[in-house]
Structure formats: C-alpha cells, structure tokens
Here is the input.
Amino acid sequence: MDEALRTSPRATPWRLWLSGGWLTLFFGVALLAPWIAPHDPLYQDLFLQRLPPFWIDGAETGHPLGTDSLGRDVASRLMHGASVAATVALIAGLATCLLGSVLGLLAGFYRGWVDQVISRIVDIWMSFPPVLFAILLVAVIGTGLTSVIVAIIVIDWTRFTRVVRAETMAQARMDYTEAAHVAGMSRFATLMREILPNVAPVILSVLTLQMGIAIVVEAILSFVNLSVSTDDPTWGGMIAEGRVSIHQAWWVLIFPMIALFLTVLSFTQFGDALRNRFDPVLR
Here is the structure.
C-alpha cells in the first residue's frame, strides 16, 4: 500500500471503521455462536449432504451457506470456528504481548548485560523456522487447543521483544527521559511513567498483528490435524475438508477462506490505523 495512503489522516478513519466493524462482528459471532448458530455444528445428515448456498437452485432455507459432504451446516461450523480462532487470538496474543514486551522494555532501557542476554536468546530463538517449530512443539506436547496456544506463545514472543526493544531505545534517547532523570525520578519510574506510554502505540500495533498471525498458525495446524479434534469445527479444518471436495461443494472451501482472509486483514489494518492515529511521533 502506498505510504501516503497508509499515513493519510483521511484514510485512517475509514480503515478504523471498516476493520473495526469486521472485528466487532467476528468477536460477536465468536461469543454468541452457541446461541445464534442455526444448527449443531457436529450434527450429520447424509440426506442433506453438499446442499448449495441460498442463492443457488437446490438450496434449503435452513442452511443459508449450504452443507458439507457429511450434511453438516456450513454457517454453524463457520460460527463455531470463529470461537476457536477468537480464543487463540486473545489468549495467545495477549500472553505473547506481555512476555515479549516486558523483555523488550528491559533490554531497551537497561541495556548492558540485560540487553546482551535477552538479545542473544532472541537471535537463537528466531533461527528456527516458526511454522515448523510450531508443528514440532505440538507434535511433542500433544494436540489440542491448549497446545496450540502454548506453541504460539513459545515461538512468537520474540516479535514483540525486538520491536519493543528498538522503540524503547529510541524513546530512552529523547529529551523528556533526561528531564525525568534530572527531576529525580527513578529509572523504573521513568520506564513505567514516561517511556511505556510512548511505546504503547507500537505494542498495540504489534498485538493486533500477532492476533492475526495466531489465527493463521491455528488454521495451519488444524489444516494438518494438529489442533483441536478433527470433528470440532475450525477454519483450517474446513479448508482441508473443502479442498478435497472443491469440485462438488466449492462453498465448503471458499467461505472459511474468506472469513480467515478478512479477519487477518482486519487485524493488520486496525492495528496500523490505531498507530497512525494515536502514536505521538506520527501525529
């Protein structure tokens, strides 16, 4: 995207509204899925298999997005899959943010041996391919949603550490930091009261990006049957199933792909727009 458009004050509100609207819908559906889903996502009826969406001839009114090869309602499975994606995004994203940001703040502000130790650990950790590392971790500790969340936290904390460390180092060289020292403020108080609020927009931007990445990682793991049970609805599992029956029931593949794409895109755009709007340096 063109840099002028990314930072344009006229473009930012639209990005906030569009991405924020989709994310509100996403989290709302994820929270209310057990009550608003039209059918049980696990219920199978082979007499209703591969029914098309509502706008195609042969559709059933009770299945607006059609059914899969086992007669399960696609709309209901999409909604319950959103619950899995939202759980991973929130828990893994927030835990990764907390761990990585704390280490990044310490390394960027205190420097010295603290920075050396943390930076070397980050370099070693980032030498492993993240997706392969995630698959290896889940294969070792076992499948399941908890294992997926743990794997994401173990792998992706380095993203926050590197970005927050660099931003903290930049803020620590600002005049307001020296003024806080002259005023008698302790180093820890300076870090918490002066530097952290100015680093927060960057942390928020990376957090929203990380939530989108967490959803992608969970989709990849569920695609290869390393996430939750294969019977439970996940977007990655639906994509894997739809890939097999793409010529007979394309909607089983397309709808979860659209949901995944729009959700990850919205996380990225929302975080970037928030940073453009609230970061004091960019403003």
The radius of gyration is 22 Å. Residues 1-7 have pLDDT under 50 and may be disordered. The longest helix spans residues 74-110.
